[in-house]
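Sequence only, no structure available. Ideas?
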Amino acid sequence: MHVEQLEIFVETIQLGSFAAVAEKRRLNATSVSRSVQNLEKQLGIKLLQRSTRKLTLTEAGEIYFQQVQPILQRLNQAQQQAQDIKQTLQGTLRVTTPIGFAESQLVPLIPKFRKQHPELKLELLITDECLDLLQQKIDVGIRIGNIEEDNWVAKPLLELCFIACASVEFLHNHRIEQPQDLQTVPCIGLIPHPNAQHWCFKKTQTDTLLEEIWVNQELLATHEQAAKQLCLAGQGVALLPHWLVEQEIHDGKLQEVLSDYQGFYQQSEAKIWITYPNREYVPAKSRAFINFLEQEFR
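Reply:
I predicted one. Tokens follow.
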């Protein structure tokens, strides 16, 4: 039997279907199904119960899966350690990152990283979905908010701060001198944040917390990028992460309002994290990328 057959079998259990494995490996589902069937023939046992709705492990399949999975992990680790002896990093580095952070912060840094490691292939999985690092074979993840997975290592990368901002055109027509003014001017809300229609402010110098402000949200968006574009179009004031709008503020396309105050959402995420699977051995390619991020955002 081939190692690839074992990998396909394990991935089928982890991902739940032949179609998901086929999509990941860029094969057709028939080839994936045939690979598992060939493995069953070689073993002389049935590993999977197949139905139109789902795949389930047989009793023998469960035992086999529990034994094979750690063997494959140790094999991958051995291969990685052997490759790390080389002076140049090679192979593929898989990184997952939220959409907004990727566009405004990470992607502009990629050319610099690739110049340092030209033989290393890079796969960017840009999504706001919290992908499973182990199942998806992801080397490094960037996540916003609380990290609850026990099998992840998490290192803080950035404190998450918010900036209330609007376009220059919008501010020509609206006066905003104190947080209470946001109750009467058009505002752009972010649906995913807790208590999205309540914005909190505290004095920057005194750190005095003010009451939550029920802002006049005339527009709501599920994504921060959309809220930023609406803000640039002069549609209202938005409370957005600093890393998402700092360039636009620097270029004069957006202007910070209420600069004497710090705005935030109640119970909002406090940090941006670098995450990676909790393993005995961290590959050199992962360490290089983590060190690069820490250096760039120091």
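The two ends are 48 Å apart (CA to CA).
Hope that gets you unstuck.
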